[in-house]
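Q: Given only this backbone (91 positions), what sequence would you predict?
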């Protein structure tokens, strides 16, 4: 893996853990640590775009209280399933 790719993963992991809303930190941080290393470049691009979304939008999407945009639906479902499972390790 290139240095640029490693730096990107580090940056995205940091953004997953330091959201500004503790609930999202506790959902996205463990998910990132468990899944990002195995994600395809396209999946990483989508996750990076998801990280740019506002926590006040993300939380209802992940908890199922609101419908996510279609482009994020699969990823949000995966994150929600991971969060509800209580797993903190890679699948």
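A: Predicted residues:
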């Amino acid at each position: 893996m290139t240095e640029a790719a490693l730096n990107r993963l580090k940056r995205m992991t940091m953004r997953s853990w330091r959201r500004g809303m503790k609930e999202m930190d506790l959902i996205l941080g463990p998910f990132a640590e468990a899944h990002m290393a195995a994600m395809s470049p396209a999946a990483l691009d989508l996750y990076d775009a998801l990280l740019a979304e506002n926590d006040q939008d993300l939380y209802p999407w992940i908890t199922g209280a609101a419908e996510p945009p279609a482009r994020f639906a699969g990823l949000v479902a995966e994150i929600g399933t991971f969060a509800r499972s209580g797993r903190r390790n890679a699948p």
